[in-house]
Recover the amino acids of this structure.
């Protein structure tokens, strides 16, 4: 499969992480790239659009929520 330049860099990082034992071996690289891309876009967009809600209802700074969310994404692909 051919990737666009940015996705190619991400693919190389995922492949290297798998080879070095940092990431799960069962990851499918193209699916992982696009899932992370969509997830990161969604997290950033939602956080930007819901700043007041996050502050008022969740009692969090939007950056805290983004950091937690990105950590959760990483944990989903790392090797335990």
């Amino acid at each position: 499969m051919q990737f666009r330049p940015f996705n190619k860099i991400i693919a190389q990082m995922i492949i290297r992480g798998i080879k070095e034992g940092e990431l799960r071996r069962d990851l499918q690289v193209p699916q992982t790239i696009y899932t992370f891309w969509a997830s990161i876009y969604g997290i950033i967009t939602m956080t930007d659009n819901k700043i007041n809600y996050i502050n008022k209802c969740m009692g969090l700074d939007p950056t805290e929520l983004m950091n937690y969310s990105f950590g959760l994404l990483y944990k989903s692909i790392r090797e335990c």
About this structure: The chain has a mean pLDDT of 93. Residues 66 and 72 are 10 Å apart (CA to CA). The helical segments are 5-19, 29-49, 51-58, 62-77. The radius of gyration is 15 Å.
